[in-house]
Write a structure and sequence with these properties.
The complex is a heterodimer of chains A (203) and B (256).
Chain A lengths: L5 E8 L3 E8 L4 E5 L6 H9 L6 E6 L2 E2 L5 H7 E4 L10 H8 L5 H7 L16 H13 L5 E5 L7 H16 L3 E5 L3 H7 L2 E6 L2 E2 L1
Parallel strand pairs in A: 3-8, 3-9, 6-7, 7-8
Antiparallel strand pairs in A: 1-2, 1-4, 4-5, 9-10
Helix pairs in contact in A: 3-5, 4-5, 5-6
Chain B lengths: L6 H21 L5 H25 L6 H22 L6 H22 L7 H32 L1 H9 L4 H26 L7 H8 L4 H32 L13
Classes of the chains: A alpha/beta (203), B mainly alpha (256).
Chain lengths: 203, 256
């Protein structure tokens, strides 16, 4: 049996994640569902290394995340937040924050945006556009894994569909996706595996 | 008669203004009478003690190390004040102490190294005191603002961290805005100086009978020192303070 990409071993964090054990397989879209406050966002933050468990261990390719150098790990395991945060400046400036030399046009295209966006002021974009720029920015680090925290929950269907298409293309190119979603139709549409979290436990 | 020698009578008469303040407080039912009396007594007692001690320390017959000891004491006291007023900042006392020590050391080195004033107790203690007092105020504003700004911009800082930025790069835009905000009042003070309030050193010198132009030169030199010291102090607070807000594995701590 191959080593899973991520393995959560009896992980606890605050009151939301309690004794969580879970394996994330590479090369597929794993969708995480469950009620609010079930620790879904915490799971993604633990995977990216923005949080460290109070107890237990998160393994990435068999190595504890806590023992890995944080910067290269975070670049390999990109996190897209529920509320996209745009940095000051143009869309191109935002993309350069992830990778100063990669072509913004190529990244924008991967996220379903055309090149004319590069010069736009990032903070003035619509919610859907911001989220696609956030996705493009995360792709800029050339990650193996995309962690998506309800990226389409505040978007219209058309914007949501573009994010879904970009994500599926990422997986077809060999990437792994862990996607937190409340949207049951979306889960049925694109999940290759579903994990339900409740009270910190996963089923 | 020396105009600075106001004597017991002059001091007593100046209390008339305090009596007016007490009257206004009673009339408008502000309930501040006790505070006014307490603060007045405290100011008088503190200044008397300081004046007596200072008279002893900076007397020309005393060794200069007594004045240096005084400077050390005010720098430590200023760091304790920063720590008391901005307790949210991690490691606030050592960070505040470093900020004060570095800003005072550079100011004193420039002032006496270049011979702006001759190095005596009578020049060292007031210069160091003025610089420390102002640097401390800026440090307090900077430290409090820094903690708030990092909390307000947590989403952006974590978004940058999640892209593999170093903590110092992730916090840079926030830090820059904070340092600017903390320094602006000091810059603004230099812009309006003399138009309304005459600054303290100049007022003292003019009251003491010094020619106003000479008083202005001394005051201008002090203002430049103060602005420079404030900039040094708040930069040290910012750069050192930020370090304490991240864990070793480069996560943003939860403050408060």
């Amino acid at each position: 049996m191959t080593e899973p990409l991520f393995r959560f071993c009896d992980v606890s964090l605050g009151s939301r994640v309690v004794d969580l054990s879970l394996a994330i397989e590479p090369g597929i879209i794993t969708m995480i569902t469950g009620p609010s406050g079930a620790g879904k966002s915490s799971l993604l933050r633990l995977a990216n290394g923005l949080e460290r468990p109070d107890a237990g261990e998160v393994l990435f390719r068999g190595e504890p995340v806590s023992s890995l150098a944080p910067r290269p790990h975070r670049r390999m395991v990109a996190l897209v937040f529920q509320q996209p945060v745009m940095f000051a400046g143009s869309v191109a400036d935002n993309l350069a924050a992830a990778h100063p030399t990669r072509s913004p046009l190529e990244l924008l295209e991967q996220a379903g945006l055309d090149g004319s966006f590069a010069a736009r002021e990032a903070k003035e974009l619509s919610g859907g556009e911001k989220q696609r720029v956030a996705l493009a920015r995360s792709l800029g680090t050339n990650p193996d894994v995309l962690l998506l925290d309800e990226p389409t929950s505040a978007l219209d269907d058309a914007s949501g569909a573009l994010i879904e298409a970009s994500t599926q293309a990422f997986v077809e190119a060999g990437g792994t996706v862990v996607w937190v979603s409340h949207d049951t139709a979306q889960v049925q549409r694109i999940a290759q595996r579903v994990v339900t979290m409740d009270g910190g436990a996963a089923t | 008669m020396n105009v600075t020698d106001i004597g017991f009578f002059g001091l007593t008469v100046s209390l008339v203004l305090i009596v007016i303040a007490l009257g206004l407080s009673a009339w408008q039912q502000l309930g501040l009478e006790r505070s006014i009396v307490g603060a007045t007594m405290r100011a008088l007692a503190q200044l008397l003690v300081v004046g007596l001690l200072l008279g002893y320390v900076i007397d020309e017959g005393r060794p200069l190390w007594l004045s240096w000891l005084w400077v050390v004491a005010i720098v430590v006291f200023a760091a304790a004040t920063v720590a008391r007023r901005a307790p949210e900042l991690p490691n606030v006392f050592p960070v505040g102490l470093a900020a004060n020590v570095i800003s005072v050391a550079i100011s004193v080195a420039v002032t006496f190294g270049f011979g702006i004033f001759p190095l005596t107790g009578r020049t060292l203690v007031p210069v160091a005191g003025m610089v420390t007092g102002n640097a401390m105020r800026t440090a307090v504003v900077g430290a409090r603002r820094l903690v708030d700004a990092i909390e307000e911009n947590r989403d952006e800082i974590e978004a940058r961290l999640s892209l593999g930025s170093s903590p110092s790069a992730a916090v840079k835009p926030t830090l820059r805005a904070t340092l600017r905000l903390a320094l602006l009042p000091q810059i603004e003070a230099n812009r309006t100086v003399g138009l309304v309030a005459l600054p303290g050193a100049m007022t003292g010198l003019i009251l003491g009978g010094v020619d106003p132009v000479d008083a202005v030169l001394v005051q201008a030199a002090l203002l430049f020192l103060i602005l420079g010291a404030a900039a040094i102090s708040v930069t040290v607070i910012g750069l050192a303070g930020v370090r304490g807000m991240f864990t070793e594995d480069e996560r943003l701590k939860t403050i408060n």
